[in-house]
Amino acid sequence: MQKNLFLPVTSLFSLLLFISFNAAALPEQALVPGGIALLQLQNYSPETTVLFNNQRIAVFPYKNSWIAMAGIGLSTKPGNYEFSIKHSDGLTVNTKVTVKYKQYQEQHLTIKNKRKVNPNPQDTERIIKESIRKKKAKRQFTEKTPELDFIWPLNGRISSIFGLRRFFNEQERRPHNGLDIAAREGTPVKSTANGTVIDAGDFFFSGNMIFIDHGQGIVSLYAHLSEISVKPGDLIRQGEVIGKVGQTGRATGPHLHFAVIANQVLIDPVFMLPKDGNQFTAKSAEK
């Protein structure tokens, strides 16, 4: 039996979706492209599955309840989107959420290695092969319940924020899909949460990069490393050193490109990180 419930903002749905989850290091709701939608589940059981925009999403425990978390892709247009909760008894409950418009700024960068802006045919062949690996990591979905009390992978100055429209040598490319944290080359980089290494290696644009699976479609990514200390299949604990800051790939200086994937879309990592976990951002907040 299927039952569709589109509850207005003044109804029970407002109590479910718009609860404020402000406990330390838990995801922060932001109903914008590149943001996160949270839904508190009623009558949840392990057999319950939750979809957002027809894509299965992560479910995790919080205090005495269960929360579903949906990543909202950067290319998502403003409008209404659906959560679909499928219970073991066959009942399906649908609720909608409204994604609002957000404008991201531009960033212009000069890259000395012109091949990193306009690759030659040999480079392009390599990039195509690497894109298959990236897509595979992005689509990773394991049944493990994710632990989303993320920590910062390192302390450092934020040199580039998520969502910027990027121009390399005045040529427009894809928007920035992560958070750049500047630090001295060789600074240790830590895993933001418990997980399993999906892939690790040298990529044309991203340099030395690591993908870590945290469960149910939540994946973290660490790029431009000078060194990689782990290999695919390794079980990683939160806070474990997995590599060192570098400037490999397409980079203008030493930094970590940190990204988070949820239900196959890249989201702003800031919404996953504690506000006081990086001394540089904590000082900015005080100012």
Briefly note the CATH topology name of the largest domain. Glucose Permease (Domain IIA)
Question: pLDDT average, as an integer?
Answer: 86
Query: What's the level 1 CATH class of the largest domain?
Result: Mainly Beta
Helicity, as a percent range: 10-25%
Order of helices and strands: HEEEEEEEEHEEEEEEEEEEEEH
Beta-strand content: 35-45%
Termini, distance in Å?
55 Å
Q: Under the CATH scheme, which architecture of the largest domain would be assigned?
A: Distorted Sandwich
Supply the helix-strand structural class. Answer: mainly beta
CATH superfamily of the largest domain: Glucose Permease (Domain IIA)
- Using only CA atoms, what is the Rg? 19 Å
Low-confidence stretches: 1-24
Please, how many domains?
Answer: 2
Tertiary shape: globular
SS elements, strand count: 20
Quaternary state reads single chain
What can be said about the biggest beta sheet?
10 strands, antiparallel
Number of separate helices: 3
Provide the descriptors you would attach to this structure in a database record:
287 residues; Immunoglobulin-like; 20 strands; disordered N terminus; 2 domains; mainly beta; globular; 10-stranded antiparallel beta sheet
Would you summarize the structure shown here?
This protein has 287 residues and is mainly β. It is 11% helix and 38% strand. It has two domains: 12-99, Sandwich (Immunoglobulin-like), CATH 2.60.40; 106-286, Distorted Sandwich (Glucose Permease (Domain IIA)).
